[in-house]
Amino acid sequence: MATADRSTPNVDGAPGGTHTADPHRETGRAAGDPATSAATTISALVARGAGRPPTVERVVIPAPGPGQVRVAIRAAGVCHSDLSMIDGTLAPAFPLVLGHEAAGIVTELGAGVDRLSGGERVVLNWSPACRACWHCTAGRPWFCETSGRPSAARGTTADGTPLHVTLGLGALAEEVVVSQHAVIPVPAAVPFEQAALLGCAVLTGVGAVRNTARVAAGESVVVIGLGGVGLSAVLAAREAGAAQIIAVDVAAAKGSLASAAGATDFLLSDESLVRAIRERTDGRGADHAFECVGRAKTIETAWRSVRRGGGVIVVGMGGRDDVVGLGALDVFHSGRVLRSSVYGAADPDRDVPALAEEVLAGTLDIRPLITHRLALAEAPSALDRLTRGEGARSVVSFPT
Ligand SMILES: NC(=O)c1ccc[n+]([C@@H]2O[C@H](COP(=O)([O-])OP(=O)(O)OC[C@H]3O[C@@H](n4cnc5c(N)ncnc54)[C@H](O)[C@@H]3O)[C@@H](O)[C@H]2O)c1
Ligand SMILES: [Zn+2]
Ligand SMILES: [Zn+2]
């Protein structure tokens, strides 16, 4: 396992190490608080190591401690970052419960929980802000120094081996026990499967367009990589009034998904891609390009796809050793800006409820993102589909 890299925390599955403590777990129990129940045995999608296919196992989840809540998961999306936990891109601790994009119902409150009540519909937040560190107090909770590491210790496997959960959540499971700060109430009218997507793909893709690039009406946009994240960027670009939205993927079947989300053009990612984008943007290149794959090569393509002074937003999470090559003269002459967008540069406590309202109002229609619905037992097939670039989001539903 790679050594911890504390200098780059807080990416959807940040490179490097693990942490074992929930930073939000409060100590001490307020007088008069009810005692919490016992640990529970549940089914979860567990990865035993990199390169090993995950399987559904029975695991033991602890009772909520002070400041924690238990959430019965109702729907969980399968994100590429779950695949990155097991394909060598990241180095989490194993055994590991996968999943970090989910919605459910609060079923139990630990001592001292003051911001929630039982029965609330909530979206899970994989980067809860401490509101006290340097980045949080500077208004950038997505860089919170206490959150976003790939795995955290929680519970045990059936034979008592210490278990870990993805991004402090481990949401491809019947239940999670998490900090009260890692859940965000949303209106009960938002369907669980759509609410789940607000917790990662939608917040990330929409936030990249609105918060990081600040796409304006009439601008031109390129989106490379049309999974749940890239398609969310397409949706947001349309909503922002972008005049041209050029969607790009290696899979031809993504063309219909792109147009359903509002893309004006669809191009296959091949040798002629940059030329084709320039032909569609008066020879200059687009105003913004969003890299939603997580590879150096596609970051370079995004770079060459934008005009002088344009912006490249890296949304995809690539490998530590996949190095981006840019010419020094080109960097100077192009005047382009290269930025990443971590968790949509969003404040989930503020932005998830706002997105939920847009979903309810019909102004943000995220239904086209969901292409497969499945049971937990079928979740490994969703990871296979991500490997092949098939469909958009697969959402696991849990029977009530
Ligand atoms: N910034 C964040 O905070 C954040 C949050 C969530 C996910 N992510 C990352 O965003 C990326 C996308 O996530 P997703 O769940 O949408 O993934 P996904 O696997 O569903 O989609 C990726 C898409 O990229 C396409 N693709 C692969 N190679 C390509 C190439 N060379 N050119 C063009 N398209 C190509 C695939 O066919 C697929 O459609 C991943 O790297 C994920 O880890 C980042
Ligand atoms: Zn994710
Ligand atoms: Zn913080």
TrEMBL record:
<dbReference type="InterPro" id="IPR020843">
    <property type="entry name" value="ER"/>
</dbReference>
<dbReference type="InterPro" id="IPR002328">
    <property type="entry name" value="ADH_Zn_CS"/>
</dbReference>
<dbReference type="Pfam" id="PF00107">
    <property type="entry name" value="ADH_zinc_N"/>
</dbReference>
<feature type="region of interest" description="Disordered">
    <location>
        <begin position="1"/>
        <end position="37"/>
    </location>
</feature>
<dbReference type="GO" id="GO:0046294">
    <property type="term" value="P:formaldehyde catabolic process"/>
</dbReference>
<dbReference type="GO" id="GO:0008270">
    <property type="term" value="F:zinc ion binding"/>
</dbReference>
<dbReference type="InterPro" id="IPR036291">
    <property type="entry name" value="NAD(P)-bd_dom_sf"/>
</dbReference>
<keyword id="KW-0479">Metal-binding</keyword>
<keyword id="KW-0520">NAD</keyword>
<comment type="similarity">
    <text>Belongs to the zinc-containing alcohol dehydrogenase family.</text>
</comment>
<dbReference type="GO" id="GO:0051903">
    <property type="term" value="F:S-(hydroxymethyl)glutathione dehydrogenase [NAD(P)+] activity"/>
</dbReference>
<keyword id="KW-0560">Oxidoreductase</keyword>
<protein>
    <submittedName>
        <fullName>Zn-dependent alcohol dehydrogenase, class III</fullName>
        <ecNumber>1.1.1.284</ecNumber>
    </submittedName>
</protein>
<keyword id="KW-0862">Zinc</keyword>
<dbReference type="GO" id="GO:0005829">
    <property type="term" value="C:cytosol"/>
</dbReference>
<dbReference type="Pfam" id="PF08240">
    <property type="entry name" value="ADH_N"/>
</dbReference>
<feature type="domain" description="Enoyl reductase (ER)">
    <location>
        <begin position="40"/>
        <end position="396"/>
    </location>
</feature>
<dbReference type="InterPro" id="IPR013154">
    <property type="entry name" value="ADH-like_N"/>
</dbReference>
<dbReference type="InterPro" id="IPR011032">
    <property type="entry name" value="GroES-like_sf"/>
</dbReference>
<dbReference type="InterPro" id="IPR013149">
    <property type="entry name" value="ADH-like_C"/>
</dbReference>
<feature type="compositionally biased region" description="Polar residues">
    <location>
        <begin position="1"/>
        <end position="10"/>
    </location>
</feature>
